[in-house]
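Changelog note: in this version the structure field was regenerated for every chain. One regenerated record is shown below for reference.
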Amino acid sequence: MKPRTIYAALLCLSVALTAATACKPAEPEEIYHIVTTICEDASSAVTVNYHCSGSKSYVLVAKADDVAFRKAKKVKPVCRTWSTVGIENTATESTFYTKERYVCNATLTGLEADTRYIYKIVAGKTETDARQFKTAGQQGPWSFVAFTDFQHRENPVTLPLVQMMKEMFSPDLVVCSGDHIDVAGNEYEWSFILDNDIFRDFVYAASPGDHAYWACDKVNGGYPQYDKPYTFVNLFKFPDNGSPTSPGSSYYFYYNNVLFVALDMNNSDVASGSRFDEEAVWFRETMERLQGTYQYLVVFMHKSVYGSDLVDPAVARNIRPQWAPLFQEYQVDLVLSGHDHIFSRTNAMEGGTFYLDMGSSGDKKRRPDSTMWENTARYAKVIDLIDEEISCACHVEVDDTCLNVTVYDQNRQVVDSFRIPRKGGN
């Protein structure tokens, strides 16, 4: 074949390939892990956090009665590329590692208090369905719902339990005291919760559990650990007002007349040291600065200050001596926790603080040890979740006189209830 003929043939092939590429439809953008997260002042702002395959997405937000989004406000998110490549101990087979994506934070500001909104996310030709939330600022009684320790992917309890609490109480605020998953480095475990339609239409706040530090599946009899809760802080965008040693995983926010504080208790192998000390300093400084700005003070943290001394002895050895005096000093009303997978609730401790270990909102449970049954001075209620075959969620009603706390099992039965009177000094 002559050179000119070869050149012509190659040119034709190139034109044909270019035309085929041009005619090929663009891949639709993928939008996933959508969570509406709390801001410091929940009456005027929320953050929509999501992952996206492209960099040019945006959020449309409108009041709930504007169902066609005719008066919607367009909010561009702050986006950054992210994967777990380069993070020590990470699971290289997980899509967190193999699939780089954009982590997008769209903070919706200038919202009206006590108002319901809808929003949707747009990226190229991809558009999500409408989700909703309601801002804080309600006058008079209100309530929120709390969970702990979903943990195991595709367990048969968690999603029906969340759906049950939504049907019973239509919560505008949901909090979780940690351990959404078993191994934080496995993206498919997070998808079980975050990408299900049940887990939406409320504003969300959470503290990390020790499993948020579990980087990959078991190796040589143990679970390699992250030194920071990398996947947690890239799936949720919480207020940037926490401890400098735990950014994104410790923070505070106001919701109506309650100040909430989330604490990061780190992984199971670490229960003391400079990181804990500095978080305690931050807590003290924050409480000093915010005194008089709230009626009730609620802390949520993963590890139970007054949980089982046998399940995690490091808590009794290190966390309790450091944090119980602080909670007493600043008269915390309620501490919500989990970790032990044992349900326990204390009497009013020093400072009038009640400690509620909600046990499990999944299917992982342990039996209480004998010391818990016998210590009636400390515990007002202990439940064997295994014998009772129950998992738990909590509903807290708030008014000017008290917090009314009711714990439900997955069958809508009340398993515990108690009242926390408002302290005169708040």
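Spot check on this record: The longest strand covers residues 31-38. The mean pLDDT is 92.
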